[in-house]
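Run log // design_07
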């Protein structure tokens, strides 16, 4: 969710240039009016930087100072570029180019390649991992999946820092970078990878920037043509610029200085990709006459969240810390951040799921809640816990919404219905626009209730449901709008990649959460070794981990919960400590994580009716090995150990679950997950106690479904509509 979520979904285009400035605070207004020369906007989290720069561009266009086609705004993600295009369109400046660095460079490369090189541009390699794997094999180097990913990342880093294969070992030796394998070995793989690309006439995403830079350096006529086209540049998230991107920007600019950069050194979290805040921090040195504006009014978060964020950065060290911005919340007070200590990771996930369920029951939409973690491998236990709690969730973002097959098919159907008008029998009983959309999308799989189960069917329904909600919002904002009007709106949104919201709790890594925000955020797994991550060795690496946590904290508008677990698995030794970054911030943290203070001063111990009892290690009932993965612990066996599941019982349980899901109008996994049903079918419980001992069968589900499940296990068919269950 972005800051735009809480504004009017379909605002009226401002009537005049001056009206574009309405509603801006003094600092944002200063940004909007600074249209000449170099401008540096230092913008803290939640301070409305996107609002400031889009209104700046729109005001310049509407006032006749800037020509739309002469402005190029660049940022780092398709989502951010799409949001920028959407906002500019709403402000009456729809002709402005807002793109990622790669997208802008690729367009130029495609246009100028025949003139500069001749022939067709080589094919773009969408995923380089497979080619890196082949390069490693040709070098007689064996890489497992994780090593392959790491080596691929090293090659990307080398290219954006303009390091050629022969120089890679020496460059790594001079830097503080930890190579995932022997640098000489990586250098060989890198060289072979480049050779394979040449042999097959393909280029990768880094080549797009490198080749564009090469053409602009060698062909002054082409560089001049681009400079005549683009007179004014805006760069968002400038703290994330790599040396290669800065080189491209310099070539676009030439000897001009009509450049506006926006960034926050305290949100530099992508140094592993070659990003550096040095360009932002040195901007005033390179441009002594630059206008500098600081945005510190935080409109996103409550004073309590902002206080924690400021305190977190107050302990930071290094050059970026010297330029930190002290945020000032503009919101009414809210609840204090909550700190919770759990015995183990499954307990932490279950406790988080319970709190999320309580928030939803209290009226917080699921789409306004996020669980953020350090690495993607942490997601599985939270997926399981949310499924067990009957809470819908989503792992993917919405930036590619309009590329989903079901959305494209829905667009074709809506366009056809708009052309047919009242001649389409589908619309006979549809009195208003939302009803027309529901009628059309019902032919594509939309129903008024979500389908049972998860996976592709549920994902498809969620996409169509997002279109229905968009139609309802559009009709409220534009009374009298027709189906043709909605289709035109969808086309414009698709062109801008301005996607509607898909409901469900978001599960995301802290890196993936950059640029997003929610009403409630759960920061989980905040232990030493995970935050900061264990391979953060140098002071600068540790400080980047602190900035990553700062980004996580500042995603929260109102509710913020920070939690950690003392051990990985139930019954494990409580050897973990809460993150050093929380010391001095969380209550009772004078002696970090000590037993004498951990339960006092506002830190919870996972308390409540559902508190997990401490128990011994979970052992595989087949081979006796200690289990650590959530799915394996649910089955009480290793995933690859032989199963003694009663297949017939499993199918009867699935049929019963499907019926329950239909009656409750919930996804099937909200009744029981597949893993829980497998565990039941393997262990065939005969009593409440035996059933309750199975992970995923809590007190609530035991009370609601226990009698039915035990009856089915005993050979019956459950009590719910027995004549319909097969």
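design_07 sequence
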């Amino acid at each position: 969710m972005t800051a735009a979520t809480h504004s009017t979904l379909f605002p009226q285009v401002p009537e005049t240039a001056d009206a574009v400035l309405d509603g801006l605070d003094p600092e944002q207004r200063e940004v909007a009016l600074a249209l000449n020369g170099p401008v540096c906007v230092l913008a803290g989290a939640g301070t409305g930087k996107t609002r400031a720069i889009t209104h700046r561009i729109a005001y310049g266009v509407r006032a006749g100072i800037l020509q739309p086609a002469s402005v190029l705004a660049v940022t780092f993600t398709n989502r951010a570029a799409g949001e920028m295009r959407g906002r500019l369109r709403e402000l009456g400046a729809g002709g402005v180019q807002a793109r990622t660095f790669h997208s802008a460079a690729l367009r130029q490369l495609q246009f100028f390649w025949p003139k500069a090189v001749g022939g067709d541009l080589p094919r773009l390699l969408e995923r380089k991992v497979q080619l890196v794997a082949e390069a490693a094999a040709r070098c007689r180097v064996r890489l497992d999946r994780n090593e392959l990913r790491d080596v691929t990342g090293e090659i990307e880093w080398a290219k954006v820092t303009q390091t050629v294969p022969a120089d890679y070992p020496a460059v790594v030796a001079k830097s503080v970078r930890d190579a995932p394998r022997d640098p000489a070995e990586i250098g060989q793989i890198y060289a072979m990878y480049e050779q394979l690309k040449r042999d097959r006439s393909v280029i990768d995403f880094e080549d797009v920037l490198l080749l564009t830079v090469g053409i602009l350096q060698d062909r002054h006529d082409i560089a001049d043509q681009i400079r005549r086209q683009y007179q004014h540049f805006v760069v968002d998230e400038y703290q994330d610029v790599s040396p290669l991107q800065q080189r491209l920007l310099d070539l676009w600019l030439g000897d001009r200085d009509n450049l506006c950069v926006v960034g926050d050194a305290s949100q530099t979290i992508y140094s592993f990709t070659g990003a550096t805040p040095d360009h932002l921090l040195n901007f005033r040195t390179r441009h002594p006459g630059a206008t500098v504006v600081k945005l510190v009014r935080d409109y996103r978060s409550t004073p309590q969240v902002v206080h924690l964020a400021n305190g977190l950065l107050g302990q930071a060290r290094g050059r970026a810390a010297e330029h930190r911005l002290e945020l000032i919340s503009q919101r009414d007070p809210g609840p204090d951040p909550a700190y919770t200590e759990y015995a183990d990771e499954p307990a932490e996930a279950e406790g988080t799921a319970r709190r999320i369920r309580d928030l939803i029951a209290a009226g917080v939409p699921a789409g306004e809640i996020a669980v953020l973690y350090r690495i993607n491998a942490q997601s599985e236990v939270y997926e399981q816990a949310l499924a067990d709690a009957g809470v819908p969730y989503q792992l993917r973002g919405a930036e590619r919404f309009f590329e989903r097959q079901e959305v494209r098919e829905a667009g074709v159907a809506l366009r056809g219905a708009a052309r047919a008008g009242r001649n389409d029998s589908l619309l006979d009983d549809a009195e208003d626009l939302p009803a027309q959309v529901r009628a059309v999308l019902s032919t594509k799989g939309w129903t008024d209730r979500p389908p049972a189960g998860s996976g592709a069917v549920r994902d498809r329904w969620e996409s169509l449901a997002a279109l229905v909600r968009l139609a309802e919002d559009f009709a409220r904002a534009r009374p009298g709008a027709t189906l043709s009007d909605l289709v035109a709106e969808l086309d414009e949104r698709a062109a801008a990649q301005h996607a509607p919201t898909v409901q469900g709790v978001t599960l995301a890594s802290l890196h993936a959460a950059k640029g997003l925000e929610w009403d409630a955020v759960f920061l989980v797994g905040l232990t030493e070794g995970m935050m900061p991550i264990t391979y953060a060795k140098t002071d600068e690496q540790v400080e980047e981990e602190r900035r990553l946590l700062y980004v996580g904290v500042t995603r929260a508008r109102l509710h913020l919960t920070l939690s950690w677990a003392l051990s990985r698995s139930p019954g494990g030794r409580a050897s973990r400590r809460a993150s050093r970054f929380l010391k001095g911030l969380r209550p009772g943290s004078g002696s970090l994580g000590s037993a004498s203070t951990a339960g006092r001063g506002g830190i919870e111990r996972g308390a409540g009716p559902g508190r997990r009892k401490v128990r011994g290690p979970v052992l595989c009932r087949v081979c006796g090995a200690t289990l650590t993965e959530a799915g394996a612990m649910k089955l009480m066996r290793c995933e690859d150990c032989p199963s003694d599941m009663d297949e017939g019982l499993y199918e009867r349980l699935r049929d019963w679950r499907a019926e329950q899901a239909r009656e409750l109008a919930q996804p099937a996994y909200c009744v029981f997950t597949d893993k829980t049903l497998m565990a039941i079918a393997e262990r065939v419980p005969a009593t409440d106690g035996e059933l309750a001992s199975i992970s995923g069968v809590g007190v609530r589900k035991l009370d609601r479904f226990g009698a039915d499940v035990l009856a089915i296990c005993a050979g019956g068919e459950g009590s719910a509509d027995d004549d319909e269950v097969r």
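The first helix runs from residue 17 to 20.
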